[in-house]
C-alpha cells in the first residue's frame, strides 16, 4: 500500500469565496499578517503499489478535481513524511 | 511574504462520510486499487514573514480546523516547492 496525497485548489483566476470568507473572518477576529487565503480540498488515498502514476493523475483529474475550475497536485508520500493523518491533534 | 499550507483531516477515529462517498464512487466507476480515501481541507495562506510559527498554529487550530474532530499540519513552503496553486492544470 502506498499513501497518495492529492491537493486541489481553485485556479488562480477563479474566485474563491470560501478562502475569501476565511480571510475576512480573520480580519474581523483581529488576526494580523494574513494577506490572502485560498481554500481547497485535501485527499489522502491508500493505493495498491501497482497503481501507476498515470492512473493516479487520471483519478485526480476526473474524480477528485474539476479540471475546468481547479488545479491539483498528486504526490506519493513516504511513511516517514508527516501528514495530518499521522500527527495527533495536540496543537490546541 | 511567506506561503503557508495548512492541511486538515478528520481524525482517524472519526467517520469521514465525504471520503467514504468518494471511495464508493470509485468502486462503482471501475477504478481499481484504491483501498481508502479520506477527504479534508487544504488551505494556502499568504502570510507576513514576521508571523511566528506559534501564531500560525493558533490560527490553524482555532480558525481553520476543529480540534475536536480534526487533525492538521502547518508547513511553510519555499517558492521552489510545487503547490496546486502553481501548477497549471494541464493534467487532463
UniProtKB/TrEMBL annotation, chains A, B:
Statement: the UniProt record of this protein carries the keyword Ribonucleoprotein: no
EC number of this enzyme: 6.3.5.3
Catalytic activity: N(2)-formyl-N(1)-(5-phospho-beta-D-ribosyl)glycinamide + L-glutamine + ATP + H2O = 2-formamido-N(1)-(5-O-phospho-beta-D-ribosyl)acetamidine + L-glutamate + ADP + phosphate + H(+)
Enzyme class, broadest EC rank: ligase
Keywords: ATP-binding, Cytoplasm, Ligase, Nucleotide-binding, Purine biosynthesis
InterPro entries: PurS (IPR003850), PurS-like_sf (IPR036604)
Pathway: Purine metabolism; IMP biosynthesis via de novo pathway; 5-amino-1-(5-phospho-D-ribosyl)imidazole from N(2)-formyl-N(1)-(5-phospho-D-ribosyl)glycinamide: step 1/2
Xref: Gene3D superfamilies: Phosphoribosylformylglycinamidine synthase subunit PurS (3.30.1280.10)
Pfam families in the cross-refs: PurS
Matching SUPFAM superfamilies: PurS-like
Compartment(s): Cytoplasm
A molecular-function term among this protein's GO annotations: phosphoribosylformylglycinamidine synthase activity
Function in brief: Part of the phosphoribosylformylglycinamidine synthase complex involved in the purines biosynthetic pathway. Catalyzes the ATP-dependent conversion of formylglycinamide ribonucleotide (FGAR) and glutamine to yield formylglycinamidine ribonucleotide (FGAM) and glutamate. The FGAM synthase complex is composed of three subunits. PurQ produces an ammonia molecule by converting glutamine to glutamate. PurL transfers the ammonia molecule to FGAR to form FGAM in an ATP-dependent manner.
Subunit-level organization: Part of the FGAM synthase complex composed of 1 PurL, 1 PurQ and 2 PurS subunits.
Family from the record: Belongs to the PurS family.
Protein name (database record): Phosphoribosylformylglycinamidine synthase subunit PurS
Amino acid at each position: 500500500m502506498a499513501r497518495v496525497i492529492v491537493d486541489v485548489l481553485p485556479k488562480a483566476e477563479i474566485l474563491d469565496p470560501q478562502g475569501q470568507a476565511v480571510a475576512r473572518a480573520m480580519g474581523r477576529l483581529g488576526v494580523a499578517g494574513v494577506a490572502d487565503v485560498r481554500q481547497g480540498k485535501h485527499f489522502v488515498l491508500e493505493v495498491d503499489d501497482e497503481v501507476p502514476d498515470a492512473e493516479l493523475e487520471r483519478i485526480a483529474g476526473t474524480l477528485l478535481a474539476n479540471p475546468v475550475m481547479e488545479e491539483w497536485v498528486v504526490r506519493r508520500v513516504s511513511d516517514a513524511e508527516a501528514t495530518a493523518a499521522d500527527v495527533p491533534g495536540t496543537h490546541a
